[in-house]
Amino acid sequence: MTKYTEIYGVDISKDVFDVMDSKGAYFQYPNGPKGFERLSRELPKGSFVVMESTGYYHY
């Protein structure tokens, strides 16, 4: 049994960030405070989010 209800992978670029969940659903958000606020509101409780930290856009 896993302790996470859903797992999300995030790919960050200059203008947007792409999100895919463990069921294969794809989402895209603007890379900025509004995009991250929107993602945080839409994430189900108990989610695990992973991001590759390449370049500097993940900051």
Verbal overview:
- With 59 residues, the protein is an alpha+beta fold.
- The chain has one domain (6-51).
- 17% of the residues lie in helices and 39% in strands.
- It contains one helix and four strands; from the N terminus they run E-E-E-H-E.
- It has one helix at residues 33-42, and strands at residues 6-12, 16-21, 26-30, 47-51.
- The chain has a four-stranded mixed sheet with strand order 3-2-1-4, covered by helices on one side.
- Strand 1 and strand 2 (16-21) form a beta hairpin.
- The chain is globular.
- The mean pLDDT is 87.
Strand order of the largest sheet: 3-2-1-4
Q: Structural class, from helix and strand content?
A: alpha+beta
Radius of gyration based on Cα positions: 12 Å
Question: Any low-confidence stretches, pLDDT <50, length ≥5?
Answer: none
> Which H/E pattern describes the elements?
EEEHE
Give the amount of beta strand, in percent: 35-45%
> Terminal Cα separation, in Å?
32 Å
Overall shape: it is globular
State the helix count. 1
Instruction: Please outline the major beta sheet.
Output: 4 strands, mixed
Number of domains: 1
Q: How many beta-strand runs?
A: 4
Share in helix: 10-25%
